[in-house]
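Q: what does this look like with pyridoxal-5'-phosphate bound?
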Amino acid sequence: MVRWGGTPIFFKSGSGCHVTDIDGNSYIDYVCSWGPLILGHAHPDVIKKIRSTASKGTSFGAPTVLETKLAKLIKEAVPSIEKVRFVNSGTEATMSAIRVARAFTGRELVVKFEGCYHGHVDGLLIKAGSGAATLGIPTSPGIPQGYASTTVVLPYNSLQAVEALCKERGREIACIILEPVAGNMGVVPPVPGYLEGLWKLTRANGIVLIFDEVMSGFRVSPGGAQGLYGIRPDLTTLGKIIGGGLPVGAYGGRADIMDKIAPLGAVYQAGTLSGNPVAMAAGVATLEALKEASLYERLEESSRNLAEGLERAARDSGVKTFHTRVGSMLCIFFTENRVTDWDSAKTSDTQHYAAYFRGMLERGVYLAPSQFEAAFVSTAHGGEDIEATIKASSEAMKGL
Ligand SMILES: *Cc1c(COP(=O)(O)O)cnc(C)c1O
């Protein structure tokens, strides 16, 4: 019996692409802990490394070689990152990146985009995506007016909006932060020229460009969205995959900016458990496993097969949908409109999505319980799992 309707599912175990709830129901999982589990649940290499590391002590509050090793793996894959700092969550990473960008520029204004989610940082929880959008509280109470007034929110994928703001207040803007592939209002890829345009505008106005790749890092390509689209941001935030399923975040980028952080500079940032060896070990094991030849090609192939199958199933059922995918991040919007930003994402019929979600759950497929989230494919999703998912989708769509 599948239980749903306000009660979250309590999970008992996960293995590969499968999860089991406390009632013993098993599902093919496309949430993958909201993105980190690109290798699937309980990957043997990751678990082995966690075990052996934990048995030697779980925290020292001092550097370990594992931290250096993970930093090297990240720098190798993401060349814009000259220096990197580990923290405990994506939220901390974006919060800290903004602080150093403000200190570096001596400016206060932060520009973010509607529907982008950067964790629950006060100044960024304004017209935010993800759970905040789902629950209809994109701008959270409890955020002082002063914070909100230093954040300017613009529509995603509109260069004109950024150009206009830069003309008026370009010299007040410390940083522009964005998800280079938006994944927290459903999946919304950048339109051609958008990221290049932002790069040029930030050069012209002395603004720090921050790519929040907490979700897209090591997901849409080994080098993240910046690797995929060939753009070099000043700062990058990471999380999710680089922790291999343990709590982690990181921020890094240009050495001249990162050198503003104490002890070299005066910008304070610390964390009792930052660079925690067990989390670092899970990250190292994950990034090393991701180096396997043709792994991203195979992931791309299974993601494409899934996306094509889902699109076919929707078309055959006559339900109006718009499909997006970048690598192993994908989304079905229940709208006939092309989705390029939060306004168009919002035209989705969320009741329809909810019914579809329940239909899939009943057929053994666990999707995010919200229209405004991504579905993640892992390397553990095999051909049979993809086929079973498409079949379930076909039935669920027809039942709408
Ligand atoms: C998940 C996410 C965050 C927040 O990370 P947490 O570890 O949940 O704090 C920030 N930015 C993006 C793009 C994310 O997807």
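The pocket of pyridoxal-5'-phosphate is lined by residues 89-91, 94, 117-119, 179, 183-184, 212, 214-215, 239, 249 (CB under 6 Å). The chain is about 40% helix and 15% strand.
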